[in-house]
Sequence to fold (162 residues):
Amino acid sequence: MEIRLAEISELSEVMAVYRAAQDFMIKSGNPTQWGHFYPPKELIEQDISNRKAYVITENNIIRAVFTLHFGEDPTYKIIENGSWLNNEPYAAIHRVASDGVLHGVFRAAADFCAEKINHIRVDTHEDNLIMQRQIEKYGFKKCGIIFTASGSPRIAYEWDRK
Fold:
């Protein structure tokens, strides 16, 4: 398993991974988080252009993707029903998706991020029980509820090496 920045020439492969993840989420009881509409191609193009999109490959085949955003994330400014562990600088992991072939994708992404920064935030939909388990298994602490730009609630988590 290797992790590297995504290239714009790989956009169709990256979108295919997102489509596989959307299909899996719909089949596993989480039809509304992404449906077949999120993330839009334009957002992924922007992530790649901004050097925030990463791919996880096996034998040079893209099997999973995620976004790593350093610095303040606007969706994390307000948290309800709880509070962040601290206000130290952090990175946020977003849009983790897998084609279902590899196991341990979230752990690999989180390990990769933890090599770069000591403080990470992540969020997920209340119906995404699989991701909630993976986040908590890694050691993230549930902190409260945040809202996406569209107003949709998400369970917010934080991990701090300290």
Summary: The chain has a mean pLDDT of 95. The CA atoms of residues 17 and 99 lie 5 Å apart. The chain is about 30% helix and 30% strand.
